[in-house]
Amino acid sequence: PYVKMIDQMVKINIESFNLKEPDDKVRDKVHFIMNNISQASCESRSLELAQMLTEDNIPWFASYIVEKRVSGQANFHKLYLDILSNIGNAALDKAITRSTYYSITKVLQSPTLTTSTADRSILRSLGMWLGQITLARNKPILQRHLHLKELLFWGFETGRLIAVVSFVVKVLEGIKESMIFRPPNPWLMSLLGVLRDLYETEDLKMNIKFEVQVLCKNTNIRIEDIPKTGELVSLHIPLKEGRTLDFNLAKLGGGSGGASGGGGKSPTIDGVSPVLDGKIGSTSPAGPSGGSG
Predict the structure, then answer these.
(1) Residue 156, CB half-sphere, CA atoms under 13 Å: how many?
(2) Are 212 and 169 in contact (CB under 8 A)?
(3) Opening angle at CA 206, ends 202 and 212, nearest 5
């Protein structure tokens, strides 16, 4: 049921997304300022940008910040947050959030998500940014735009956990600065519970489990204090050419013979074997926009 979840995200976050390009003079001035802005000049440059913003070009400017700057420049996130704070425009802040959901959805659609380190790096950067503009500011992530728990299930059933878990972890790092999204917040605990279930899933690749460990360390939450959900048991593990993308089946004898190849056993979650399914969920072939403008 989660394979088509991304289609709903596309419908909400992409299909209704429209931009109106500003004239060349405004665009060139914005590019010049953003190419030369620094922490020292942030306040004065931000005021210049604020004076150029109009109701028509705010969506374009928000998209430019997110797609051309934020997505590929994680080291400058603080600078971009300071720019937005100095501008202090509520309509811009709303447009930035919407552009972030848009960009995340685009990257999740990428057909090279599991094989491209560039795609996953962009997704991680966007996740870190989303956590900073929402959770760190005590603002919720609206499930109609991005249902993080169902996204984990989607990643599980489509063999994309290598990208999705890393993304979700980066989003959740925003709780470090939150007054609301800390244990025992129900939304947070439900999400952390799925991450603990994944962490304790036998044969899940170690680099995916390591992401959960790092999150717990960075947010000062003990993994043993997180209640399990048991919600992974009914999910399907996808197979591709007789192997899974996120699980280590080879050592169990699950070679090219399929789910039960070589008489090997299936991965287990708390001793229960999930259903193995040979079909991979597909998404529309659209990749992220790169470049720094």
Answers:
(1) 27
(2) yes
(3) 90
Distance of CA 274 to the CA centre of its chain: 25
Q: Are the beta carbons of 74 and 128 closer than 8 angstroms?
A: yes
Query: How far is Cα 153 from Cα 149, in angstroms, rounded to an integer?
Result: 7
Residues 129-170: tens digit of each pLDDT = 999 999 999 999 999 999 999 999 999 999 999 999 999 999
Query: Which bin fits 159, alpha (ψ -120 to 50), beta or left (φ > 0)?
Result: left
- Is residue 118 within 8 A of residue 124, CB to CB? The reply is no
Structure tokens at 19: 């931009």
Write a three-state SS string for the chain: CCCCHHHHHHHHHCCCCCCCCCCHHHHHHHHHHHHHCCCCCHHHHHHHHHHHCCCCCHHHHHHHHHHHHHHHCHHHHHHHHHHHHHHCCHHHHHHHHHHHHHHHHHHHCCCCCCCCHHHHHHHHHHHHHHHHHCHHHCCCCCCCCCCHHHHHHHHHHHCCHHHHHHHHHHHHHHHHHCCCCCCCCHHHHHHHHHHHHHHCECCECHHHHHHHHHHHHHHCCCHHHCCCCCCCCCCEEECECCECCCECCHHHCCCCCCCCHHHCCCCCECCECCEEECCCCCCCCCCCCCCCC
Q: At what angle do helices 5-13 and 148-158 cross, to 10 degrees?
A: 130
Whole-model pTM: value is 0.85
Token pair in block for residue 223: 């993994």
- % of the chain residues with pLDDT over 90: 74
